[in-house]
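Fold sample X.
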Amino acid sequence: MFAVVDIETTGGYAEYHRITEIAIYHHDGKSITDFYYTLINPGRRIPSFITGLTGITTDMVEDAPAFEEIAEDILRLLEGRIFVAHNAHFDYSFLKKEFEIAGIRWQSKKLCTVRLSRKLIPGLRSYSLGSLAEALGIPVHNRHRAGGDAEATAHIFTRLLQRDKEGYVQQLLKRNSGETILPPNLSRWEFDRLPATTGIYYFLNNRNQVIYVGKAQHIRRRVAGHFTGVAQNWSRSKIRNEIHHVHFEQTGCELIALIREAEEIRRHWPKYNQAQKYKVEEWGIFSYEDRNGYLRLLVNMVTRNSRPIIRFSTKGDAWNFLWKKVSEYELCMRLAGLQEGNQMCSAAESGSCHGACLGKEKPEPYNKRVQAMISSINDDFAQPVLLLGKGRTNTEYAVVMVENGHRIYYGFVSKRPASSQADHLRKKLKPAMDIPAVQQIVHSYLTNPRDMDVLLL
């Protein structure tokens, strides 16, 4: 019925490392019935720190078979059996990858003895293999070797089955139970309470420290997505094993979720939010006068001390905004940096450009329209602007207010605000962190409101 497995590897990630040793104990639900063990040649040197942990050296595996040579034998030992391991995801992910390399598709139901132990033996200080074995009085021979660890896991599994009076194992094995995808230290109860709404979520470690913050339009689905097979980065056991709790905050609309995510990353500086820790890339629209006296426009990256007319989070947003403004003010596509070359621009062919690219329109009238365009952008951000969206319930609105183009407030109100309520609203809203990430997010919505309504105050 069951195959209790333990492996040793060259490292912690199935995507980059290989198996060096495997042990498989067959278990009939009452006791051990058979045993298999072998060293495996990983086709690379074994790092010294791995040797220090397991005692397995490169010389020891030199004459051992490669996984591809014994893949069919291992497949026969696992086929038709439920896969059992201590922290099952780790061993399962390595074996699945090794089978893929060997050209074999393998899939199995799996049980994790860490998760089973937390349910059936609650209250232990630690659920590591050594601590669990000690608590149950099970000796572990040859620790950190596949044979010794697999044998201890098999005996622990026997004890767990004996304690399972309410059929918890069968509940886990039910099709679509979903519990086996969760990290071993995260309770099903905490996962089940996650809402199917927009907001942010936090992963916490065993000391209740925030180690990751994310945003989602469907919090439960997004959290589950971190632990499926396609989420390779999140399949790494190091990350999974550190997750003990998941908290959440509903925001109603995606814009406030993005703001809150940026703020919370800045506040907690979580170890696994690597991408957001780097300098935020900004793009802007700039103007300068060329040697012929024409005011030119271009989209470029914002650098320190540079002064763009307006900022964007992506180059595409900046281009799309500039394209609309150039069309609106009948400017030259080439002088706006939207078309390369020295020939007549495409807008001149259609008549919307007055011929500045060919020198037919003189700098003075052309520059007046460019200045008018720039003034219109500044005017757009001079007065307070409200972005209104869906609240956390059907009886409230999500509100983001922008003053002078950079002071940002957000929150929730029970009634749709009127255009004369700026001062009243400000008292009800929370000021956002004045950081580039938040500024970019909000400016992106001001130029492309998505599902938000825009109201000028």
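Fold sample Y, listed below.
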Amino acid sequence: MMYQKLLITTLLTANIIFIFPVSIHAEVSSQEQTQHVQKTENEEKGNRDYSEKNLHQLIEELSQYNPELKSLVEKIKAAELKIPQASALEDPRLSFEGSNIPIRNPSLNRTAMTGLQIYLRQKVPFPGKLKLKKQMALSQSEQEKQMYYERFNQLIAKFKQSYFEYQYLNQAIQFNQQTQKKLRGLIQFLNARYSTGESSQQDILQTKQEISNITSRLIQLRSQKKLLASRLNTLLYRPQETELKIKALKQLNNDSSSLQVSLETLKKLAKENRPWLKKKAADLEEAQLGEKLAKKSLLPDFDFGAGYRVRQNPPGDPVMGEDFFSAGVSINLPLYAAKNQNKKIQEMVHLQKSEEYLQEATLQEVLYQTEKAYLEATQLQSQIHLLRSQIIPQDWATIESSRASYEATKVDFINLLLSEVTLLNHRTDQVRYQSQYQQKLAEIEMAVGLPLEVIQTTSKNQENSHEK
């Protein structure tokens, strides 16, 4: 009885000391972390800065507050915590049992076989299995990181496209307002000429009609601007009613953002840096490790055990109540490998081939995205240059000539009016092309996986190294 009481007391004490405090501590820590996160988020919402910002500052705000990015960060943290789990042994199993106790008259000192036994067992995988599991967990962690970078690139591209479209609408509204103001001034001039019989009422009506057309266009442009402002606020995780304050760009297309990299260089950089491709490489690595682990499943795992039996001294016991010690090991036998382990190996082989094909398909898609964005950007660049250097200067010259000729009654007023409308259309086309050009540069950044400044610098460094 002394041994029995001592053993039970020991087990209960161990249970109280090691098991319950751990679970309580884990629960308290989880609650504290949740409260800390909620408190931090509430503080961030209260301290948001909605003042006027440029593009770089807005992107910083997006990276800090966008909930989708925050979600991916949490996935990265979760994946990193899986790494030590993958390489850890299973929990040891502790058992306590009374063995060979007589049924009719239960007692611990009637027979020599009776005793109280503690048994400790530990399962140990075949050498190399835990290492492979850890490598797979590392690969999964890398996948989550590259998924974050890929989605970050996509969100930045989407934000820049909305941002430059918003800037285009601002300038288009400004140009239409300027032309509308000019036409209203022209009506006053026509009224004065009409009173002296030098102009017809039709000229006045045509001008008013064009002013109405511009008014209709302004309604559409302002509606589009409001919708884009809502889109930008959504990406920034701002309240929808927040007034969007953006520092106006003096010129959408400038030399610092012009594309000065060859298509071949862009494709090479995309192969090396696109997070999407890096994720697919990590996917393939995990499949390869999975195949190796499946092959090792044919090898047995070991289950080690050690026991200690506490006995009393029954009459006739040859060892006079001496305690017993036992130890052993068991292994699993892959008797059903044909339907189990071998099928798992075949499954992982097919999965690996699938990842190889998917990696190649992803590469082709990345190269296509890069080439498409590059060709469209160069086309827009040519159109911008043509409008800026030839067409718009010719429009200004045509307006001056038409005005002088009209005042000298050498041409009809309709020629002057058409010249003003043509100039407005071409100026609007220019800022639209400039906005689209900047959007294509954002697509190139996403396709390559690098900011334009880094692309330009890397390209120049490579050119200098080739020259040397």
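Sample Y note: The chain has two domains: 1-43, 50-89+125-298+334-459.
Also: The chain is about 70% helix and 5% strand.
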